[in-house]
Amino acid sequence: MARSDESDIVLAWSKDIEKYVADTLPDFTFTRQQLVAAKAFVELCWAKLEVNSNPNGKHSEKLRALSRKFGMSIMSGVGTGKGALAAVLVLWFLSVFPYPKCVAVSPSARQLRDNLWSELAKWHQKSKIKEWFVWQSDKFFLKECNGQQWFISARTANPRNSADEQAETLAGIHEDFVLIVGDEATGVPDPVFRPLEATLTRKCNLCLLTFNPTKGKGFAYDTQFKERDQWVTFRWNSEESELVTKESIDRLERKYGRESNSFRIRVLGLPPLSGENEVIPWDWIEEAVDRELEPLSDDKLIYSLDVGAGGDDSILLKKLGPRVLSLEAKGYNESTKVVDWAVRETLAQPPTVFFGDPIGWGWGVMGEIERRVKHMNVDVVQVNVSEHAYQPDRFHRLRDELWWTLREEFERGHLSIPDDPILKGDLNAPHYDDSTGIIKVESKADLKRRGVESPNRADALMMTMRYGASEIRRRPPPRDKARQRSRESWRTA
Asked: What is the mean pLDDT of the chain?
């Protein structure tokens, strides 16, 4: 560092990250997973520095092999503290090496702000050497260098840019000490990482990737599988983390089962599997998260209410054209409270159409909602999913047809959904059977026998398929054969 009186302690920190944390971050306590990875990161940095500073020296083959690795890849379940560790490693790197140039890259500015950058701000504020550094919304730097030579900067890659433009995200980073941090790396477009081999060429240049394995392909995925010999790799199982409660894990297991993709990704830290006969494959769901689809000027605002029963939450979903705007869950155990909530939302922002399931509790709830909003020109549509399908030669009943229509919207890329882990798990849960030539989606009773809870959030989205995706059109009642023959003349709602 710039202060000569601190050189001895900084040298000690550079070899011993536990000492660095004890001296500068007394509020931070390593988990077992974090400590093993932190020590391996320090060892990797020093292997690169020692071998690259003296390439003709008598180094062991193990040290040379370690020095050739691109960096470290941590694939993890949720809640294990991978973001906190990344922030601590950034602070350590900036504290112990001279004139580093570092970059943090994330799929979006929001994700970077909410994850790594907020952790960096938190631990900087708690640091005993916080006066050494300056935190800004897009840069963190050594105060004495005024942000010009000793820093980490925040960058995002626009997925709408061309591959060549994305590859420019990490361009221009050349220095003896370089650290590139890929935060939530599965969401970063692959071309962003293309220049790594040409970028990480000097004494201590490396990459740190942390991610929840939401995709079974891509650059981050390959660091753990196809290209793992070029990386120091860790997989963190949330069941083994001191930070994750057993109750939260048990809750996920009850809802989706240990074999589900939701449990694999969020708990085991494993990538999704493409199971047989999934109605909506996980990859399609992930591709729809925050997809940049804009509603058209004539798209209608739609509400959809899945009325909970038997302890299930009631779900109110709001959708405009191709975009799911929001989902809200309420654990009301009285139908009057569900009605009051839905009516309040309708009065605040009236939709064009309000869908709801009239089965069970829903019958009274939807009838009362319709009565209370009839003066507002809101089309309240009761979607009885147990009715006959519109295409009975293809589908067992209406529920199966609407789920399949939803599947087709995901397949075509016509939907944008929020990054809601429960919604994603619900969408991926049901399987289908077409062995008889008629498509039948796994019923709620069958899901329960498989140990999977009711996919309420997905059901709310499924009901919106009652009308077409690009414009709202009234479908004929399944039993009205005369109107069914004239589908092409369906009136615009």
From this structure: 89
For the stretch 7-33, pLDDT in tens is: 889 999 999 999 999 999 999 999 999
Residue 315, helix vs strand vs coil: strand
In degrees, to the nearest 5, what angle opens at C-alpha 405 toward C-alphas 404 and 406? 90
Sheet order of strands, 314-320 included? 323-330, 314-320, 301-306, 353-356, 379-382
Confidence of residue 143 (pLDDT cuts 50, 70, 90): very high
CB 141 within 8 A of CB 151: yes
In terms of residue numbers, what domain contains 49? 4-240
**244: number of Cβ within 10 Å:** 21
Give the list of residues 6+ apart from residue 41 with CB closer than 8 angstroms, or none: 17, 72, 89, 208, 232
Helix (H) or strand (E) holding 76: strand 71-76
Residue 313 neighbours by CB distance under 10 Å: 17
pLDDT band at 468 (very low <50, low <70, confident <90, very high): low
pTM for this predicted structure: 0.81
Pairing outcome for strands 151-156 and 139-142: antiparallel
Determine what percent of the chain falls in helix, strand and coil, rounding each to the nearest 5. 45, 20, 35
- Which residue has tokens 């093993």? 36
Report the C-alpha gap between 113 and 109 in whole angstroms. Answer: 6
If we measure between CA atoms, which residue out of 240, 242, 282 comes closest to residue 261? Answer: 282
Same domain, 234 and 293: no
Please state the rounded mean pLDDT for residues 360-372.
89
Q: Write out the two tokens for 332.
A: 């009301």
Give the SS3 label for residue 442. Answer: coil
Mean local confidence (pLDDT), 301-315: 88
Q: What is the pLDDT of residues 65-100, one digit of tens each?
A: 999 999 999 999 999 999 999 999 999 999 999 999
Same domain, 206 and 300: no
Q: Which is it for the CA torsion 121, 124, 126, 132, positive or negative?
A: negative
User: Following CA atoms 181, 187, 188, 189 in sequence, which dihedral angle do they give, to the nearest 10 degrees?
Assistant: 160
Residue 493 pLDDT greater than 70, yes or no = no
Q: Which of 240, 272, 298 is the last residue of a domain?
A: 240
> What CA dihedral angle connects 335, 312, 475 and 415, to 10 degrees?
130
In the prediction, which pLDDT does 108 show?
80
**Band (192; pLDDT cuts 50, 70, 90):** confident
Looking at the fold, whether 302 and 213 belong to one and the same domain comes out as no
Strand residues in 394-468 grouped as ranges (E): 432-433, 440-441
Does 189 have pLDDT greater than 90?
no
Based on the fold, state whether residues 445 and 332 are members of the same structural domain.
yes
